[in-house]
Amino acid sequence: MRSETPLQRELQRIQAPDEIDALRRAWPLVRAALDAREPIAWPRRNLRPLFAVAVAVVILAAAVSPPGRALVGSVRDAVGTEKKMKARPALTSLPAPGVLLVNASNGPWLVRADGSTRRLGPWSEGSWSPQAKYVVVTRNHQLAAIDPNAMGAIRWTLSRSATVHDARWAPDGFRVAYLNGRELRVVAGDGTGDGVLRARVGTTPPAWRPTADHELAFSTLDGRIELVQTDSAETLWRTLPREPATQLVWSEDGERLLVLSETSLRAFTADGRKLWEIGLPVGPSGVAFVRKSHRFVMIRFAPATGRSDLVLLQAEANRGEPRFLYSAPGDFGTLAMSPNGMWLLVGWVKADQWLFLRVEGVKAKAVSNIVEQFGGSTAGVPLEKAFPKSLSWCCPASP
Question: Which residue, among 35, 58, 135, has the nearest Cα to 392 in the 3D structure?
Answer without folding.
Answer: 135
